[in-house]
UniProtKB/TrEMBL annotation:
One of its GO terms (cellular component) is cytosol. Keywords: Exonuclease, Hydrolase, Nuclease. DNA polymerase III contains a core (composed of alpha, epsilon and theta chains) that associates with a tau subunit. This core dimerizes to form the POLIII' complex. PolIII' associates with the gamma complex (composed of gamma, delta, delta', psi and chi chains) and with the beta chain to form the complete DNA polymerase III complex. The keyword Protease does not apply. GO terms for molecular function: 3'-5' exonuclease activity; DNA binding; DNA-directed DNA polymerase activity. DNA polymerase III is a complex, multichain enzyme responsible for most of the replicative synthesis in bacteria. The epsilon subunit contain the editing function and is a proofreading 3'-5' exonuclease. This is 3'-5' exonuclease. SMART domains: EXOIII. It comes from Christiangramia sabulilitoris. The lineage of its organism: Bacteria, Pseudomonadati, Bacteroidota, Flavobacteriia, Flavobacteriales. Residues 38-211 form the Exonuclease domain. GO terms for biological process: DNA replication.
């Protein structure tokens, strides 16, 4: 059993150095306390919602540590892509011109992995963003993300269930939760803007879920 565990978790030497460096960061155990944990809140803007056909146009992320949003330690990249959906461009405004300095998909993934390392990832409706990242990694022969993931949509429901102020079947949008918490929606539909709104929501959720200073990371995953 132990031999199988080491074989499964041993960094693959056939993968690029940047991936091996990312994988090596998971040798460090995550802290037990939420207050000691490094979270990365992220968002993607894409050409659409088809995992097979659509592509990532931008990734935005922010670090949350010691229950504080580290604005100065932010992450944002714009990707060179040949596929564009006119309808989604109307929403996020990322178009094929020189307004944004763009990099290749592989370079963006390298930078993103270097930024997140073994952090706990936070996203709203996280399944979509994580799958888009994983599909991009797969196109370059790389494994899926190794990070633990938390979804603010699910955490929001867990704060409301006790008071019966929730529709259990409803999929709450970022706008709806932001409005419930009186969070300004400035810079909406940009990856960095949505990541910041999600980070603010996460801070609100933390204050409701962690009633004592020793609130543990594993308690967040019970919700």
């Amino acid at each position: 059993m132990i031999k199988k565990w080491f074989k499964k978790n041993k960094p693959r030497k056939d993968l690029p150095f940047f991936w091996q460096n990312y994988a090596k960061s998971f040798e460090e155990k995550l802290p037990e306390k939420v207050s000691d944990t490094r979270f990365v809140v992220f968002d993607t803007e894409t050409t659409g919602f088809d995992f097979k056909q659509d592509r990532i146009l931008s990734i935005g992320a922010l670090r949350v540590e010691n229950k504080s949003i580290e604005i100065s330690d932010n992450f944002e990249v714009f990707l060179k892509q040949t596929k564009f959906n006119p309808e989604t461009v109307k929403i996020h405004g990322i178009i094929q011109n020189e307004r944004f300095q763009k990099i290749t998909e592989l370079e963006a993934l390298k930078k993103f992995l270097s930024y997140i390392q073994n952090s706990v990832l936070i996203a709203h409706h996280a399944g979509f963003d994580v799958k888009m990242i994983n599909k991009a990694l797969g196109r370059h022969g790389l494994p899926k993300l190794k990070n633990k993931i938390l979804d603010t949509a699910i955490l929001y429901k867990s704060t409301r269930i006790a008071t019966n102020l929730i529709d259990r079947e409803k999929s709450y949008t970022l706008d709806e939760i932001a409005e419930a918490y009186n969070i300004d929606l400035t810079d909406r539909h940009t990856a960095s803007g949505d990541a910041y709104i999600t980070a603010l929501i996460f801070m609100k959720l933390l204050s409701r879920l962690s009633k004592d200073k020793n609130f543990r990371l594993k308690d967040l995953f019970k919700n």
